[in-house]
Design brief:
Layout lengths: L1 H8 L3 H21 L7 H7 L5 H10 L16 H17 L3 H12 L7 H18 L2 H13 L2 H18 L4 H5 L1 H4 L1 H14 L11 H13 L6 H4 L18 H24 L3 H35 L11 H17 L2 H25 L6 H8 L6 H7 L33 H8 L12 E3 L21 E3 L4
Parallel strand pairs: 1-2
Length: 479
């Protein structure tokens, strides 16, 4: 290794970086050939093998230009040389036909080491992924999906922010390029949605999803809601509760936060826009956003119903909580704080809309096994919120026996099946949603919730009926 390093020190920065890539391909490629396989799940598993420290040091010194000797002066790439290096990486990953080798090289270049070089790694990775999106390098996107699944959520959010800036903020109309990724790498899209929902929590106007991003995400989901379950279905179930610090296995929590908090957050943003003299502009944009959040909410409920089928097939329903209790507590608290910030006299409709969506989501999540809790646990939590008829109905429903019989414990190594290869088969999103939420296809626990208005684009009026524990409350897709 010392001979290699000596040779690299005599080269210019770009040539040295290219030589490191060549060395990685030779050394790690031979290791991959001795592994269990070169494609499919085994390729991802191979990438998890630790790369030798000497190899990591070469990458840090000649790719990220962190000198091994503190007194040595680092050689930096110029902007042009960096662009050339990114092009070389794009070409390499595109031309490398062995999945195992590709994942190993990607891991050697971008796996976080917990040192000061990680900032350079994330910066380089964000630029590489941005270029891969622009030129359609699918292997890089697939490798990035694995990286997003295994890396700390804070790091994933940093990479996602760069991509959002590049394609949803800086250049108008460039979101169309990112949108096309849905057809090329659904695994990347699933992880990207999870990352951006962790980034944009609607806690401020700056952390509200940009319109182009919101529209793209909603279009992806309405085209095929199963996209949201892709990572979950391809992750060993025993590991589903062990990913501490990483992104959620599904973006359901983040998307639920978007749809529930949107009426309150948008009203808060409109008030700020009014104070700044931009009321008319914000009004038009706000109406379009309201429509998108409504479609999003319907899709999230639909995915909960889909999730129940998969949990049942894997015999884990009632054992594996996709929505964690502490996250639900956090969401309820966020809704309560947002409601307090707004003047109830001027924002009553928005508060009720947010509470209606929250009540619907809690009911469907509990009924489908995505949220493992009882009404008795939710009542004191939701009692902090303003009065809402639908929430009161959900919290005061009649006692129900356990929805799921006793199930055996999870086997030690149970893998879920990947999504159907027909994930991109085009079907009309409204037909999907309405079939899933129709009165004839309702879960037994949803007997008091009925879909009485099935067109997703029609305006919905909250029922004026006063609450009675025995009265069925009409269900409508909340606008």
């Amino acid at each position: 290794m010392s001979d290699i390093r000596g040779s690299l020190l005599r080269r210019d920065p770009l040539s040295a970086a290219k030589e490191v890539l060549y060395h990685l391909d030779i050394s790690l490629g031979s290791s991959a050939l001795q592994g269990p396989g070169t494609s499919g799940p085994s390729a991802v598993a191979t990438a998890a093998v630790a790369v030798e420290r000497s190899t990591v040091e070469l990458v840090e010194e000649f790719i990220y230009h962190t000198p091994k000797d503190r007194n040595a002066q680092s050689k930096r790439l110029s902007c042009l040389q960096e662009l050339q290096l990114l092009e070389i990486m794009c070409s390499y990953f595109q031309e490398q036909s062995r999945d195992a080798v590709r994942h190993l090289i990607f891991s050697a270049l971008f796996s976080l080491q917990g040192n000061q070089v990680d900032d350079s790694r994330m910066a380089m990775l964000a630029k590489l992924v941005s270029m891969a999106i622009a030129v359609g390098r699918v292997p890089i996107l697939d490798c990035t999906a694995t990286w997003l699944q295994r890396s700390h959520a804070v790091c994933c959010v940093r990479v996602a922010r760069v991509l959002v800036d590049d394609y949803c903020r800086v250049v108008p109309g460039s979101a169309h390029t990112l949108k096309q990724v849905f057809n090329a790498s659904p695994a990347f899209c699933c992880q990207f949605i999870t990352a951006v929902t962790a980034l944009y929590d609607l806690s401020s106007e700056d952390l509200t999803p940009p319109p182009a991003l919101l529209e793209m995400v909603v279009d992806w989901i309405t085209d095929d809601p199963r996209l949201l379950l892709l990572t979950f279905l391809n992750t060993p179930l025993p590991a589903a509760s062990l990913s501490r610090g990483c992104l959620e296995l599904t973006p359901l929590l983040g998307l639920l936060r978007w749809s529930v908090k949107a009426p309150l957050a948008n009203q808060r943003n409109r008030k700020q826009a009014l104070a700044n003299g931009h009321a008319e502009l914000e009004k038009g944009a706000g109406q379009e956003a309201d429509e998108l959040y409504s479609k999003l909410h319907l899709s999230v409920l639909q995915v909960f119903l889909m999730l129940q089928v998969h949990l049942t097939e894997k015999s884990v329903i009632g054992q594996l909580s996709v929505l964690q209790w502490d996250h639900v507590v956090g969401l309820v608290d966020e809704v309560g704080r947002l409601g307090e910030e707004l003047n109830p006299l001027h924002a009553a409709n928005h508060i009720q809309l947010a509470l209606d969506r929250l009540a619907q989501a809690l009911q469907v999540a509990m009924a489908t096994g995505a949220l493992l809790c009882a009404r008795e646990e939710l009542r004191p939590l939701c009692s902090r919120l303003p009065h809402n008829n639908l929430m009161q109905l959900v919290m005061s429903g009649p006692f129900q026996p356990p929805l799921y019989p006793h199930l055996p414990p999870l086997p030690p190594h149970t893998h879920t099946s990947p999504l159907s290869p027909h994930i991109h088969t085009h079907t009309h999103a409204h037909t999907h949603a309405h079939a899933a939420l129709s009165p004839h296809n309702t879960h037994p626990a949803l007997q008091t919730v009925h879909n009485t208005h099935t067109h997703a684009h029609a305006h919905t009026v909250i029922s004026p009926h006063t609450f009675h524990p025995t009265m069925g409350f009409p269900y409508r897709p909340i606008r």
